[in-house]
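HOLO CASE FILE
Compound: flavin mononucleotide
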Amino acid sequence: MKLDQCHTIDDLRQAAKKRIPKLAFDYLDGGEGDETGLSLNSSAFKDIKLLPHYMRGVRERSHKVNLFGKSYDFPIGIPPIGMANFIWPQTDLILARLAKKHNIPYIASTAGTTKLEVIAEEIPDHTWFQLYVSAEDRVTFDLVRRAENAGIKVLVVTVDIPVPAMRLRDVRNHFELPFRLTPAMALNIARYPSWIWKMMTLGTPKFENMSPYVTRDAENTPKAEFMASQITDKLDVDLMKKIRDAWSGTLVVKGVMSEEDAMIAAELGADGIIVSNHGGRQLSSAPATIDVVGSIKQTVGERLTVMLDSGVRSGADIVKAMCRGAEFSFSGRSFVYGVGAGDVAGAERVFQILRDDLDRTITQIGCADVNDLGPEYLWKGNQTDD
Ligand SMILES: Cc1cc2nc3c(=O)[nH]c(=O)nc-3n(C[C@H](O)[C@H](O)[C@H](O)COP(=O)(O)O)c2cc1C
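Model generated. Tokens follow.
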């Protein structure tokens, strides 16, 4: 499918599926357990109806939002995607440059395949850094120090991985860390020559941010093994406070799903939260973020910037999230589907699709400025979360 025939994120997903080997596509596309959480993330957005208002003169429209003292041109950002360059080569840099071009934030991942310093140099004003708390404090606090030295202003601490998730597609594909390529997978990969060619010419992706901490000197597998060994169940409020103390910039907690955790974030002095279920990748039984964001906003909205991800696939979804109380959204898989479907042009297509749909939607419902979105635009027949 050609890019100009892709009119939705799902069209791009289908196009990406044709270019990415199964192993990598499933890693991107899949969720935890039976994937009911993954489906719920989409269906919960679809279940919400917007109430249009007309005769309001909406010729002058604005999509701009302010976050932590900086103005962004559009209320969507690119969240952290670990191992992105394995899904499609150069995804990290393609998306980072897209973020700069459109003045939106890009969150570099601890599990990234491009060094955080490289991203920060490429797009200094748009890089946020996402921290996975490591099993070893020396690693955690060194990553914090590196982010600060790189001039990054926003640190996003992901709290929702206390244990490796059971992602069945990855298990069935034998895509576990440490990675072992089975003959069946090798045969499948052979059907994707452009992916293979890029991998061969650009080099096998590695966990670049973790390289300095690997004590063994061998290359790929030990790093993956090391990465797996870093997933930890030890994160508690005390450690979060130490991270707060070590970081003088803006602190965001990612993976908040309850009012209690939102209160903890507020109490420890965070500046914002991302209400997230990790895109359905950690707990299949978790609710959809769009269904919990309203009560979280009511609890901490005065103290914290409340953002959301998980399941956002259209401009209308961004509008719904804002009507329910999120000030900003992120969409993970959408942007990577775009890169998989068509490299730089594919990423650009994702942005166009989201932007045009958001613009049409706010025009249609009679709201000229995204900052004015609120419950007024939600149909009262929707089930609410409060
Ligand atoms: C392939 C993949 C890798 C991810 N890697 C990370 C990561 O390294 N750190 C993190 O905090 N979240 C990670 N996430 C979660 C995303 O940041 C985000 O929360 C999620 O993709 C949002 O859901 P969506 O894909 O439905 O938009 C990853 C998600 C995907 C799909």
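CASE NOTES: DSSP finds 16 helices and ten strands in the chain. Strands lie at 65-67, 70-72, 76-77, 106-109, 127-132, 154-158, 250-256, 272-275, 305-308, 328-330.
CLOSED: yes
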